[in-house]
Inverse folding.
């Protein structure tokens, strides 16, 4: 169903594109990578929502994971004379020429979520999250939550060698490094999946005295945490109480776990990259204000006190 | 006669398994402890049997396919499809029985598709099954609409994490299915016919074996096994993860079959060997997790151990050991040793299972 | 022959394979300008001896002297450079390279460090001219017939080595004209002073070409004898190690065939491009021989009759009922059996045991739900191992370890176990040793007497004469005629084939081959 809706949407937008010269305040082209994950789908949903709210005419192009499609889309945006372009680049390299073309046409480009290798005068600004900061937010929460009690932490890492895995690990370790009562006793990759999260957590529990020696779990994404929560339950322990659970991403399912008291905190990787991007564009067009070259999105921390039930309901409809 | 022969056939695999378990015990004290807690058996050994269930189930079907000199690369993707079908049906309120039957049906259908490409169109198995390996995950994503489709139906969840008399249900599933399939192939003539096809398909057809129908059945069986594995994997995490369910498990399953002493050239096969192979692989995985090495080493360690096992099993090393036993140094034992050695080389990994 | 030091002398050669003796103290010598045949039943040690001479195997004991120098080649390359070249039955060349590239592979003439293609082509033409072959040397080898390829292989081996040429069953896949051509070349090489070792199963050829013969049996040398004055019977008995009973050439009785029931009736059965429509009635208790040149449609006829290929016209009746075979399974259900020509590819299941190979067709016909018990399988296997005198140490031995003749008997046993009414045999005696050869011919007669209907395809005319009650003549992909019992003789068959070939559009394959070289 969802796919059908997306398809219908794409067709509608294409139709709009063809006959557009509609007088809106601002016309923005958005070249999206595709819809490879729930988060990406949510980003698309929120971008459309934000545009509608602000009365922006959004032209959407799904590149289906191909750079050539993105370059074609940008050229077509330029040809149509849009006011600005949002680009979520599928890869980091190979953008110089098409960005030059946009610059020559005096159309500002805002990068969403990912960076490119091109010189930074070819785009207006880049909106994204800071992976290391996310890890730090999770670490800070744990420091506050345990106070000065001793706490052995186990860590479920993302796919070995991926930048979220490296940065989220560094941020967390820096945040807890000054606190001698907190010790990371085991750290192993769970490949960002629920299955591996569960399997690795089972082995952590076995290795650490049936889990009695573990005080907290830090997972680099919510899915691994959700798998681990099941492993903790099957071992006869209470996740969220016997073992604290903190993770990153804030996908809808983690709020259900929070509501049940099985997860404690999640750091949001917001899919709302378009909001800050539109803010910057509006300011730029209004009084030619140059934004900074990197706009960091908020890494919001959600806990059990943030009414997880309603957050879940809200997020559920964002396309995750 | 039959039992000792079977034991002799899987002896190298059993020895390898025991060595790995001994290594694990040395690395992780308490590795062998099994306790009864929360109404279920609890311990690392149980984890190995339980976590190894998907690969063990896949290996059962894969053994049969490989015995016909085929290969089934699609089983990982079929797992994802099966998980997605099960989750989609149960969340739309279908009864458990309907869900399970439809899911197994989907798996069998996938297998029949592969079998038809191989048996009727004569496409090489590696290519024929590659098609579904690539497309299958996309089909699964269409069914789940790109999200992790979660469910709470206690019946379906039981398949993944329920217990019977304290034994996790996935363990019971693979042991029982493994036994039933082995018996089916050894008590009937299916084993002989499948082995004949694997050794020489054309000669088998000329001898009157319905090779096309048998190939179809064997691939369907592999699809069924993959569907069961897919339900186990989905039920385990109470959700169908189309992107990751069964990802790369086809390779683990093939590895399990090979580590189990079966030849990729088809012919003689042993399901018991493959199941032990699956447990060897899972023991290595679990041992690595328990060891607490940095995760960067996981794959290197796993590869090194597998290489050692395969080298020890290889025909070349059998010949080599025969050569050393045969050297003039052992002159007085020469003839006896030679006979033993000759028997051994001839049987390298291919001795009859019955 | 050569009173002085022979060109090649091997003394006391022994070889064990993991405790199994393959050769034991074998002496062998070869003079320059001599053609020396090496014969023996399968498993006698011929190929082991060859492989030791050419460095493919290391000997366990003994010495080899070439031109007075002791040698110990450690691989085929070294043996070649010392002067010993080999040509195998399956020609060991690369079909996708040109003739010239094959001749100079690994030793291409160079100019400025690059391969000098022109020089290679020129020298190739010169070399092949010595063999009376003038062909386009820049064409791919695969464009030429097996006979031409074999000559190229010989030319390469002689050019590389130049002293000793070893030919391992070179005539197995050649027809009569091609064989004559090959022999002319061998005579020429002999005149140039080469020593030639020649392995074959065909006695006629041994007598035609060889000066001396060495007989091996069970890894031992029986004798080396000049062929002049050697009786055939004596040669056979040395090979077999026993006296042959009177030559199995008793003529099958001229049947009162008309009165026997028709088992299968084929009417206008044919397949475009394979075999023209033919009529054929097969009666109980008769042997229909099928004779014709290679490619005349012999195997194609068998394939249509057994459901391997489907005819696009005509009808089939079994016991007077219409029948159609979509697959061999259907034909087997009607009581048919088929021993294919290519035993290794189409017959044996090489990794499976003798027992499993014997019960396979019966088990397939019963279906997988009705397995033969292990005891039943063993009883069936033992019965046929005894009845057909299959030589195997153990019924559980993989069939690939048996000799060709014994493998053929296992395939026969596989069909006899299904108690067939009609048995189709495609070249049942090809490439098997003399003893098994005679037994299979005797067996065909016995089966006929028991009332079985047989169709036997063979290129051995003497053989057909021995067992056939009538002979179907095939030529140019059609059934060209039939000889009745009274008219059967090798001469008559040959004349009928020749007449058939002339009658058709085809030029006749023999003529074709001769022209290929002369062009």
């Amino acid at each position: 169903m969802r796919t059908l809706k997306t398809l219908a949407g794409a067709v509608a937008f294409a139709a709009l594109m063809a006959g557009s010269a509609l007088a809106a305040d601002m016309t923005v082209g958005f070249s999206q990578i595709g819809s490879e994950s729930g988060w990406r789908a949510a980003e698309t949903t929120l971008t459309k929502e934000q545009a509608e709210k602000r009365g922006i005419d959004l032209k959407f192009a799904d590149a289906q994971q191909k750079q050539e499609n993105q370059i074609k889309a940008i050229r077509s945006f330029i040809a149509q004379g849009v006011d600005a372009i949002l680009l979520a680049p599928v890869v980091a390299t190979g953008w110089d020429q098409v960005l030059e073309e946009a610059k020559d046409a005096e159309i500002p480009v805002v990068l969403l979520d990912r960076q490119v290798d091109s010189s930074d005068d070819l785009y207006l600004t880049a909106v994204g999250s800071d992976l290391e900061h996310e890890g730090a937010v999770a670490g800070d929460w744990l420091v506050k939550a345990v106070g000065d009690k001793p706490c052995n932490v186990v860590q479920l890492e993302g796919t070995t060698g991926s930048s979220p895995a490296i940065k989220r690990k560094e941020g967390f370790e820096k945040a807890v490094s000054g606190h001698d009562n907190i010790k990371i006793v085991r750290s192993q990759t769970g490949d960002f999946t629920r299955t591996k999260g569960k399997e690795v957590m089972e082995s952590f529990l076995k290795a650490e005295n049936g889990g009695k020696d573990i005080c907290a779990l830090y997972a680099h994404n919510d899915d691994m945490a959700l798998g681990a929560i099941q492993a903790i339950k099957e071992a006869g322990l209470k996740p969220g109480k016997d073992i604290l659970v903190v993770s990153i991403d804030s996908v809808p399912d983690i709020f259900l776990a929070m509501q049940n008291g099985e997860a404690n905190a999640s750091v949001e990787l917001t899919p709302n990259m378009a909001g800050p991007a539109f803010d910057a564009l509006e300011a730029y067009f209004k009084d030619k204000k140059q934004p900074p070259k990197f706009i960091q999105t908020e890494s919001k921390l959600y806990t059990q006190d943030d009414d997880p039930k309603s957050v879940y309901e809200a997020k559920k409809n964002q396309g995750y | 006669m039959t039992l000792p022969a079977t034991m002799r056939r899987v002896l190298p695999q059993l020895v390898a398994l025991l060595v790995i378990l001994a290594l694990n015990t040395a690395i992780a004290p308490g590795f062998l402890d099994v306790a009864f807690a929360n109404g279920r058996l609890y311990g690392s050994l149980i984890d190995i049997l339980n976590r190894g269930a998907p690969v063990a189930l896949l290996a059962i079907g894969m053994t049969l396919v490989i015995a016909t000199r085929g290969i089934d690369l699609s089983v990982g993707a079929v797992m994802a499809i099966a998980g997605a079908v099960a989750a989609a049906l149960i969340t739309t309120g279908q009864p458990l029985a309907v869900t399970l039957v439809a899911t197994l049906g989907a798996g069998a259908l996938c297998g029949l598709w592969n079998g038809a490409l191989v048996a009727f169109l004569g496409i090489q198995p590696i290519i024929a099954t590659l098609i579904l390996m690539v497309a299958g995950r996309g089909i699964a994503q269409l069914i789940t609409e790109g999200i992790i489709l979660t469910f709470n139906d206690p019946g379906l969840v039981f398949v993944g994490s329920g217990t019977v008399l304290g034994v996790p249900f996935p363990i019971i599933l693979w042991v029982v299915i493994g036994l039933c399939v082995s018996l089916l192939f050894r008590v009937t003539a299916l084993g002989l016919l499948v082995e004949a096809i694997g050794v020489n398909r054309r000669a088998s057809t000329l001898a009157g074996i319905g090779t096309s129908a048998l190939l179809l059945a064997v691939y369907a069986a592999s699809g069924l096994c993959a569907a069961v594995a897919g339900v186990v994997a989905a039920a385990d995490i109470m959700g169908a993860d189309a992107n990751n369910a069964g990802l790369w498990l086809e390779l683990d399953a093939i590895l399990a079959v090979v580590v189990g002493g079966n030849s990729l050239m088809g012919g003689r096969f042993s399901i018991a060997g493959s199941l032990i192979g699956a447990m060897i692989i899972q023991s290595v995985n679990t041992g690595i997790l328990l060891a607490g090495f940095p995760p960067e080493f996981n794959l290197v360690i796993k590869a090194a151990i597998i290489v050692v096992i395969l080298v020890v099993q290889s025909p070349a090393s059998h010949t080599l050991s025969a050569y050393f036993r045969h050297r003039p140094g052992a002159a007085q034992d020469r003839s006896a040793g030679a006979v033993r050695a000759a028997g051994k080389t001839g049987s390298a990994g291919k001795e009859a299972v019955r | 022959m050569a009173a002085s030091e022979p060109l090649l002398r091997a003394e006391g050669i022994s070889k064990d394979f993991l405790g199994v003796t393959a050769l034991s103290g074998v002496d062998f010598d070869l003079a320059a300008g001599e053609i020396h045949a090496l014969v023996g039943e399968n498993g006698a040690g011929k190929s082991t001896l060859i492989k030791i001479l050419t460095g493919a195997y290391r000997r366990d004991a003994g010495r080899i002297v070439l031109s007075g120098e002791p040698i110990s080649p450690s691989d085929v390359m070294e043996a070649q450079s010392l002067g010993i070249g080999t040509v195998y039955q399956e020609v060991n060349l690369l079909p996708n390279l040109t003739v010239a590239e094959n001749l100079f592979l690994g030793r291409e003439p160079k100019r400025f460090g690059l391969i000098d293609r022109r020089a290679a082509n020129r020298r190739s033409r010169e070399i092949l001219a010595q063999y009376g072959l003038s062909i386009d040397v820049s064409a791919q080898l695969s464009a030429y017939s097996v006979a031409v390829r074999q000559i190229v292989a010989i030319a390469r081996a002689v050019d590389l080595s130049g002293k000793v040429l070893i030919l391992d069953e070179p005539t197995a896949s050649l027809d009569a004209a091609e064989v004559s051509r090959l022999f002319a070349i061998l005579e020429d090489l002999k005149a140039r002073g080469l020593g030639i070792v020649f392995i074959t199963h065909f006695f006629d050829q041994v007598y035609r070409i060889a000066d001396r013969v060495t007989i091996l049996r069970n890894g031992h040398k029986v004798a080396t004898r000049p062929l002049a004055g050697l009786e055939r019977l004596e040669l056979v008995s040395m090979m077999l190690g026993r006296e042959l009973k009177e030559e199995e050439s008793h003529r099958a009785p001229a049947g009162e065939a008309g009165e026997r029931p028709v088992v299968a009736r084929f009417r206008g059965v044919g397949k475009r491009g394979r075999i023209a429509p033919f009529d054929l009635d097969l009666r109980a208790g008769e042997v229909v021989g099928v004779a014709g040149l290679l490619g005349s449609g012999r195997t194609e006829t068998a394939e249509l009759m057994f459901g391997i290929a489907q005819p696009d016209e005509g009808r089939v009746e079994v016991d007077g009922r219409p029948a159609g075979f979509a697959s061999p399974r259907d034909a087997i259900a009607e009581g048919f059996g088929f021993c294919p020509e290519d035993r290794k590819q189409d017959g044996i299941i090489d990794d499976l045991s003798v027992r499993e190979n014997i019960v396979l067709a019966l088990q397939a016909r019963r279906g997988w739900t009705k397995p033969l018990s292990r005891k039943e399988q063993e009883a069936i296997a033992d019965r046929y191992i005894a009845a057909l005198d299959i030589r195997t140490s153990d019924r559980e031995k993989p069939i690939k370890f048996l000799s060709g003749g014994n493998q053929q008997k296992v395939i026969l046993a596989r069909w006899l176990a299904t108690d067939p009414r009609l048995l189709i045999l495609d070249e049942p005696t090809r490439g098997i040793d003399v003893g098994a050869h005679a037994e299979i011919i005797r067996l065909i007669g016995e089966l006929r007497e028991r009332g079985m209907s047989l169709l036997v395809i063979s290129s051995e005319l003497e053989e057909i004469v021995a067992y056939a009650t009538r002979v179907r003549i095939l030529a140019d992909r059609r059934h060209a005629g039939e000889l009745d019992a009274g008219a059967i003789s090798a001469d008559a068959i040959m004349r009928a084939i020749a007449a058939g070939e002339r009658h058709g559009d085809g030029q006749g394959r023999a003529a074709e081959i001769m022209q290929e070289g002369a062009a």
Remarks:
- The interface with chain C takes residues 187-190, 192-193, 195-196, 199-200, 202-210, 267-268, 322, 326, 334-335, 338-339, 341-342, 345-346, 350, 352, 354 of chain B (CB under 8 Å).
